[in-house]
Design goal:
Blueprint lengths: L4 H12 L1 H7 L1 H20 L14 H7 L4 H12 L8 H16 L7 H29 L3 H19 L9 H14 L3
Helix pairs in contact: 1-3, 2-3, 3-4, 3-6, 4-5, 5-6, 7-8, 8-9
GO molecular function, one term: hydrolase activity
Organism: Labeo rohita
Protein name: Ubiquitin carboxyl-terminal hydrolase 28-like isoform X1
Length: 190
């Protein structure tokens, strides 16, 4: 089974929480692992974003941290990762997974605005889509397929504009998309 980087981070956090788990049980193990992964992702969110390296692509919580998502959104998202059924690889992980599921059930509808929660996840999904459009557009441009590149870059620009209206770190740097759109328009036959 291929694990996502997010799931790998959760597994490493559970491994780091082994002592707390062995000494004080699953709840202590979950709390320790949660704090380990939370800290790792927060540190990652402090890294500089460059055209070559965007830490927001590595994990949804990096995106949430950089865009000042509400704590409840961040905490629930991370808790859901510890509740993932793919963590059924050993007894300790299963116990922590069950504990995370119990904690999620304790969150009452009045404790959290689920529409807001879902909107944050939708924004991140759109951010990844913008990046995919941008990369595909750049690939098409490099391969001399200018019309195709322009289509992808136009979609990237349109969706990115929606994100940037919500916050400057919600989307990608608009100037990169604009640069390649201009390059395509210069060589595109009319």
């Amino acid at each position: 089974m291929m694990l996502t980087p997010a799931m790998q981070g959760v597994i490493f956090a559970i491994a780091k929480a082994r002592q707390a788990f062995d000494k004080d049980g699953p709840e202590a193990g979950l709390i320790k692992a949660f704090h380990e992964e939370f800290s790792r992702l927060y540190e990652l969110s402090q890294e500089e974003t460059t055209p070559q390296q965007d830490p927001r692509l590595q994990h949804v919580l990096v995106y949430f941290f950089q865009n000042q998502a509400p704590n409840r959104v961040i905490e629930r998202t991370l808790l859901e990762q510890f509740a993932d059924r793919n963590l059924s690889f050993d007894d300790r992980a299963v116990s922590i997974m069950r504990e995370a599921r119990c904690k999620l059930r304790l969150i009452k509808p009045e404790d959290m605005d689920m529409d807001e929660y879902l909107q944050w996840h939708d924004d991140y999904s759109m951010f990844k889509t913008v990046f995919a459009y941008l990369l595909t557009g750049l690939e098409q441009y490099q391969n001399g397929k200018i019309r195709e590149a322009l289509n992808y870059l136009a979609h990237a620009h349109q969706d990115n504009s929606v994100l940037l209206r919500k916050g400057e770190k919600k989307g990608v740097d608009q100037s990169l998309i604009a640069l390649y759109r201009r390059k395509c328009l210069k060589v595109c036959p009319h």
